[in-house]
Amino acid sequence: MLHNYYTLRFITADLDRTLKGAPIQSLFSQNKNELVISFQGGPALIASCEPGANFLSLRSSFARAKRNSIDIFPFLHGAVVQAISIQPADREIGVKVSGNRHLLIQLYGSRANVLLVDDDRRISDAFLHPALIKGTTAPIARQTSPHPDSFESFDGRLRTIGHLSLVSVLKKMYPLFGSLVIREMLFRSGIIEETATVAEISPVLSRKLFDAACQLEEELTQRASPRIYSRDSSAVAFSLLELFHLQDLSVQQFDSVHTAIRTFLGSTFGRKSLLAEKEPVIKGLRKEKDRVERTLAKMAEESADIDRAGLYERYGRILLAHATELTKGMKSARLPNLFSPAKETIEIPLDPHLAPARNAERYFDKAKKTRHARREQADRKQNYHDRYDLLRRLLDGADPIQTREQWNDFVQTHREELVTLGVVQPQKAEKGEQVPFRTFVVDGGFQVWAGKNSQNNDLLTMKHSRPKDLWFHARGGGGSHVILRSGTGKGEISKKALHQAASIAAFYSKLKNSRLVPVAMTERKHVRKPRGAPAGTVTIEREKVLMVEPRLPVKEKE
Prior knowledge:
Largest sheet: 6 strands, antiparallel
CATH superfamily of the largest domain: ibrinogen binding protein from staphylococcus aureus domain
CATH topology of the largest domain: ibrinogen binding protein from staphylococcus aureus fold
Structural class: alpha+beta
CATH architecture of the largest domain: Roll
CATH class of the largest domain: Mainly Beta
Radius of gyration: 38 Å
Strand order of the largest sheet: 16-17-19-18-20-23
Shape: elongated
């Protein structure tokens, strides 16, 4: 209802009282499609021509930016406001200034503009698209038909319509009301269903509608009082009258319409900003959840193929038991099943290029690899189940959030998980800022960061390290990824610093109780994360192995 005719009518009357006789100090723009008219003594009138966000509001003061602002209509500087009025039944506000010049503030949605015209409405300049309309005459809006002034007129016009939607008919009969007031008109008449048609309206309901319309118009013109209706601290509607259909919401009344408009805009723009920030995260979480679901389904299908270790081992034992009966070159062998009481004959596929004993060994190797694959899949499957549970928890927590405070708390609490999932960008660590890893300083003053768990390892290696950093990890056991950050110390990285970093990796591994631990070292650019791999799983190239004792540096900054 910000650029509803009745709102603009109310604002115009207030502006005429407040600004008549005020000298204009400057007109400028520093935000897209927004014109600021500042007056001597401090007040400033803001006219927003942004499509979908037209509004007019007076502020007691407005600080002009030192950069990225531009003067508009500079020849009006010093001109004095003589009167401010609104075109009847239209959203055009006229500001008459000295020198027989007029500013026409036209809040027509996507066609909104501010024009500088003479007494004959001839356009000498414009805020937006001046080259297209300079020299033309500003048209006067076509006057809307007056609201019905009697029940007979109202009912008669209603009855000539037929089976059209009641809401659409009322909007044509009361074009200045707008959707919010029409909805209130229906509610006050006892009509809850907004899908009702004109044919369903009885004479009694028709009378109630007309009475409600008269009452609403009287409130809008004679007893207007700005207010904001909110749900969970988020503004839902700005209104000049009491809205009974929103009585379940909290309401805040204002003495100043301009304060109400600023409050409403602050809330709605904040909500739009929140949605712009929240929606990509929700979308990313849902996309990842769908991917994990597909992966788990595929793994379930693969389980049957992986779980064949026992069969392969039986094949190997049967082939060994009958090795003397077989010859190289056979493609298959039909042999009795030694592991079945019935000793039924089974057919075992063979590689014709291998000797019988080698064919048996091939099946033993397949059994071993299959068992290993089954163990790997079990670990991988558990990781995906954990990831799926995490995604569900995050979605359950993020979906209901409605306020900026709640969202900031959510992101702050779950930032590490959201970054690991790839739906939130990591924060760059400023100088002196605490990073989310174990931190150390080794010989030469070089910084060393160590991951705290699988997800934290991913965050460290894939998001918070640079190509030339050195990467460490204990071989043969799970543990922390460790990064020695190049360029953080003095001179070249010493051999002592390398061994200290490797010792940190050994200390935060499953081999920390060993006397010596082999630790792989390579540049970070040679570390890759396979697609779909569980958290903390990477592949490395060009590694060197250091044998070190598991220990932490004496001077620890953890």
